[in-house]
């Protein structure tokens, strides 16, 4: 027997599959098509183990569908659109230390190769070829490599141009001013994929309350404009830089950072004077709504880079403001340092403006005290503040001071109230983030208003189609469906262009390129014909060409014959049956994917299913390329083998669940596969009959074959639901338990046992083939002379419910005897097993007939004089048996009624004698005087050791 050498096996099968073109499907009307896609990688860096799972999950399903007889298309391409690769190149050329560290020490780029990475496509090509493709092939991903492309390929850009011309013709593109995320370093709009820090941050529109000081506006930003009547004081950072500036001709005082933001939001800015915040400390400003004078206090916690850099304080409704005011009152030394009258500060009182459910008159005070918050450094303060904000928004009712809005719930009138104050000139607005956002180019990201092109996702008809696409979709897991619906509801215009970077020029305005999320919505359609288009001259790929390809000969006056021929292949593969993607992409890419398919294609070609995948951890912590906290697939494969990497990634969690790569557990998986291989080789090398008669199969053989059918059923049902972990667990770990029991119960050298073990091995290799394809194909070929080609079907002839129940009773009795031996510490010479008396069996049958209702069972039992005479004894038995019946399904209960319990244990006496090295006697309770026998219950015999 040869040792398990994963690298030799995997190299052999990779070559075999490649030479045979095993994963290069062509349309075949005899086979059902299955089209599976996954987000194409963005090669702005190397591939890590998290990516490996992303691409292995759909590969497992692709292999399963092939074994089911489908013609399966599983393609891949490379997304290079946008600025992340450009930014990475710029950081490399600048010699940025962190970038060089990641490239050389995390992704093992040789120093002499760095020069080749100093162009965007040189950078991308290196990671495509040296990381993604090599690792994907090493993992055995069943990809059709003929169809790969990059998103700046000229033919692909013609396809994107067609898409945007079509959307524009349907008035779903529009040009106008729109707030966008904007990188100051690149002077370019960016989206989530371009962001290094603050990926989750979304900009918000702040209301600016126009407080006044000496006829100068001192605007203070808030997301809760309704609290304007609750302002008691304000805060400024005395050491930060502030300016007096003319903003659209009006004198304002704001932070220096705010002027840059306002300048990018279509405001006219002229700096008049620069100073530090100390200039305003101790001054008073006037609340434009109430006319009240508000004192400005110094505070180090003020972030001058947030909104205007001056904040108003509403201590009645903001726990952090309540705590800050309390601390300001207590810090008399600081007040004296800035010449502030301590008595004036002590006199500041919180002013409630709304009644909030579950809180008292001053909600912030209650929230702080209820959570025991002592200082502004308490880590609970942020969460407590957010909790109050949420409750206030949904249940807070404005007080009488709000006139016509008095008694209204805040979430119902906030926008209307804000609009009123804005019309009266008391409010203004600006956009900003609540946290720092940095682009992958290293630049600060702000919110800028730009004259831009955007997709009209707010169009009512388009939204309706997208909602229908969600309704038609198989969403895995099902609870993600509402996330798509929610995203469609809130999604408005989406800026779809960049000033520069890689990608397709916007056909209506070629000074711009289409941004990454906007050019990656229907590229799945391009996969179907990508390899064929290479033979078509670029100039032939006109708008009419793609109209013909996707809409048929009636779409244009003179249909292109090549396009019509390609249409047949597109029509064979479409729609996409399964899209595997990340949960974080529901709020953008995946919903855009549904929008664009719903608009551009007929309903029959809309996406059929989306499976969401969880995030990966490494030794309990989030993976991070920038921090070097990643595992490279190449290193993991070299250490453990590709099958081990695949099996661990698929066995750790269901696709939509988060998983944790832990080196010690991966090593355990490697050991388990080696044991599996060695046992399989033992079976392969053992002579076994080609066929057996039923009479050659013993009870335990029939039991194992029946359990095998259950495993096939479980694994098949799981794979149909994309429960890859459940399927692999059943086929590998679950059935290993059955095999362990089988080996304990039988002589494996019998011809019937040898045949059974070969039959079981062949089937398990088929079931495990999607997960560990190298090992299973190698063993299957050694066993049968052929690689795995089919998924096994359940064979009803092997299903024996009664046999399974009988063996369960034998196993249960074995465990009960072991428990008694362990508890008593005895080594019995004799074991007596007592089955329940006939009258107890009668009660069991009555429970089965009547159902698990104590009253009804007792009523029926008491009709029988013999049982009525036993009184409480029967009552207690009924209670026990009802629980027994409830715990079992109908098929099991029917089988239990058919079997002879005493005969089951009698037939297993030889096994029990061998297992416990003791004499074993099996008797009925009615046949003995031993008091222990009275404890016997139907299917739970009494046991006596001596």
Describe the structure.
- By secondary structure, the chain is of the alpha+beta class.
- It is 45% helix and 16% strand.
- The protein contains 35 helices and 32 strands.
- The protein has a five-stranded parallel β-sheet with strand order 2-1-25-26-20, with helices on both faces. The protein has a four-stranded antiparallel β-sheet with strand order 4-3-19-21. A four-stranded mixed β-sheet has the order 12-13-8-14, with helices on one face.
- Helix 22 packs across helix 23 and helix 24 (699-720) packs across helix 28.
- The chain starts with 5 loop residues before the first helix and ends with a strand.
- The model has no long low-confidence stretch (mean pLDDT 93).
Q: How does the SSE layout of this entry go?
A:
Blueprint lengths: L5 H15 L12 E5 L11 H19 L3 E3 L10 H10 L3 H10 L13 H19 L15 H16 L3 E11 L4 E3 L4 E3 L6 E10 L2 E7 L10 E4 L4 E7 L2 E6 H8 L5 E8 L7 E3 L6 E6 L11 E4 L5 H12 L1 H6 L4 H5 L7 E2 L7 H8 L10 H15 L1 E2 L11 H14 L3 E6 L5 E2 L5 E12 L3 H13 L1 E3 L4 H10 L2 E3 L1 E2 L6 E2 L2 E6 L8 H5 L2 H4 L9 H9 L9 H13 L4 E5 L3 H15 L8 E5 L2 E3 L2 E2 L10 H8 L1 H10 L7 E3 L1 H23 L13 H22 L3 H22 L5 H18 L4 H12 L16 H24 L5 E6 L2 H13 L3 H8 L3 H4 L3 H15 L3 H9 L2 H7 L1 H8 L2 E6 L17 E4 L1
Parallel strand pairs: 1-2, 1-25, 8-13, 20-26, 25-26, 27-29, 30-31
Antiparallel strand pairs: 3-4, 3-19, 5-18, 6-7, 6-17, 8-14, 9-10, 9-11, 12-13, 15-16, 19-21, 22-24, 23-24, 27-28, 30-32
Helix pairs in contact: 1-27, 3-5, 8-11, 11-12, 14-15, 14-20, 15-20, 18-19, 21-22, 22-23, 23-27, 24-25, 24-26, 24-28, 26-27, 28-33, 29-30, 29-32, 30-32
